[in-house]
Amino acid sequence: RARPWHVRPAPQMRARCLLQVLVSLTSGAHAVWQPPRTPANEPCPAALVHLIEYIRAEANLTSAKMVAAIERAGVRAVDLEPWADFDHPAEDSYGRKMIYEDGTFEAMAMSWVPGDVSAIHDHGTDMYHGCVKVFGNFEHTTYATDGVTLKMLTAEALRAGDSIAVEHGLIHQMANGDNGRYMSLHVYARPRWVAERGVTDDTRIFVPRAHRINIVNGGAFLAGPSREVRSSTPGLLADFATTVRDRMFTTKRVQRANAAGAMIEGESASALLADLFSARLSHAHLLDELAQHVTATDHQVES
């Protein structure tokens, strides 16, 4: 299924990349590579071209090498501005634009206005190496799951210029950390070339408030449109910290969308608020969480 129009590369770019690979496979010759162009059909910023050229040429790619390559290329926030999408649709919880995609790796520019936040997500079954560089203040949270239970691991503040490695299986969530408008660069790669699948296809979206895991091929949007969900698995359980954090972020997102005159499908700000402060969530769930970390003799587990 095709990805949303706002994350697909230009048709001519995809055709050019496929042609290069076919020529290389059939004739052994190396086609002349042409750098991508901006949405306004202007030359791609030099720093991004250098980064893409390095990743294309590196035979033994790792996430650490990708982070180092971004630093060497000197990618700046201004380099991402041609792909800025601060006026993204309300149903998308942040802006997402493809810079480059060739079947082996993809580079995307994300735009974040105050209140923008991703869903809790991984990066699909194919993605093995990646990195994110932020150009502003962000909240970054990581999680772990055994397939049924989702638990929060770490929460940290990212500052402008910070980079993080994205390994296969990472589950995380990113959010704009203050009232600024920021961009971030996301680069994801897989071990082999595949034409018919995006690098981050089959991304898992964890939805604690609905106790399910959704599979999508597009953006990792919090409370995103249901039409993007390819399949869904019920039965997800989440720890207390994850549950409260999910309700809080979702409530703020729905309230912000409603204030802009937009409705978020399947979500009600009043219902989310009522649930966030309900006795069921704040009392029973907390006691259950504490019980999991205290032994029968009232000693803390894993202290």
UniProtKB/TrEMBL annotation:
<keyword id="KW-0223">Dioxygenase</keyword>
<protein>
    <recommendedName>
        <fullName>Cysteine dioxygenase</fullName>
        <ecNumber>1.13.11.20</ecNumber>
    </recommendedName>
</protein>
<feature type="binding site">
    <location>
        <position position="172"/>
    </location>
    <ligand>
        <name>Fe cation</name>
    </ligand>
</feature>
<feature type="binding site">
    <location>
        <position position="123"/>
    </location>
    <ligand>
        <name>Fe cation</name>
    </ligand>
</feature>
<feature type="binding site">
    <location>
        <position position="121"/>
    </location>
    <ligand>
        <name>Fe cation</name>
    </ligand>
</feature>
<dbReference type="InterPro" id="IPR011051">
    <property type="entry name" value="RmlC_Cupin_sf"/>
</dbReference>
<dbReference type="InterPro" id="IPR010300">
    <property type="entry name" value="CDO_1"/>
</dbReference>
<dbReference type="InterPro" id="IPR014710">
    <property type="entry name" value="RmlC-like_jellyroll"/>
</dbReference>
<dbReference type="GO" id="GO:0008198">
    <property type="term" value="F:ferrous iron binding"/>
</dbReference>
<keyword id="KW-0732">Signal</keyword>
<dbReference type="Pfam" id="PF05995">
    <property type="entry name" value="CDO_I"/>
</dbReference>
<keyword id="KW-0408">Iron</keyword>
<comment type="similarity">
    <text>Belongs to the cysteine dioxygenase family.</text>
</comment>
<dbReference type="GO" id="GO:0017172">
    <property type="term" value="F:cysteine dioxygenase activity"/>
</dbReference>
<feature type="signal peptide">
    <location>
        <begin position="1"/>
        <end position="31"/>
    </location>
</feature>
<keyword id="KW-0560">Oxidoreductase</keyword>
<keyword id="KW-0479">Metal-binding</keyword>
